[in-house]
Write a structure and sequence with these properties.
The chain is mainly alpha-helical and 133 residues long. It folds into two domains: 58 residues; 73 residues, no CATH class. The protein is 84% helix and 0% strand. The chain has seven helices and no strands. The longest helix is centred in the last third of the chain and has 26 residues. It is flat, with a radius of gyration of 16 Å.
Length: 133
């Protein structure tokens, strides 16, 4: 179920990327382009609901909330375009997950909080890098 849900959300995101981007940045521009921003918002909300519903049984509420927000916030200082931000956020999220698993194994700590701590450290590092740019 996890892979099916992830595949569906990824396919929806790739298929509707331009419409989702325009709708979230400017609903007026979306309407002028012939895109219904309410429909795109509904699709995005549905995709988020699928991600949360599938992931909540696997990783828990704390990890879902943290890994939805922190990697995107960490990617912002490093990128200039929304597409690059999405890719960098995915890489940072994967890095936080793998780093958290490694830290949990090495330090004998709970896995979820370890992933959140690694994500927070990555956020701090990218914020510093962004400040020096």
């Amino acid at each position: 179920m996890i892979w099916v849900g992830a595949g569906l959300v990824l396919a929806l995101t790739v298929w509707r990327w331009d419409a989702l981007l325009i709708s979230t940045l400017s609903p007026d521009l979306a309407r002028a382009s012939g895109i219904d921003p309410r429909r795109e918002e509904f699709g995005l909300t549905l995709a988020l609901a699928v991600v949360v519903a599938v992931a909540i049984k696997v990783v828990g509420v704390l990890l879902i909330a943290a890994l939805l927000v922190i990697p995107a916030a960490a990617a912002r200082p490093l990128t200039r375009t929304p597409e690059a931000m999405a890719l960098v956020a995915a890489l940072l999220g994967g890095t936080a997950a793998i780093g958290g698993l490694w830290a949990a194994f090495m330090l004998d700590t709970p896995t979820g909080p370890s992933m959140v701590c690694v994500a927070a450290i990555l956020f701090g590092l990218t914020t510093l890098i962004g400040a020096f740019r």
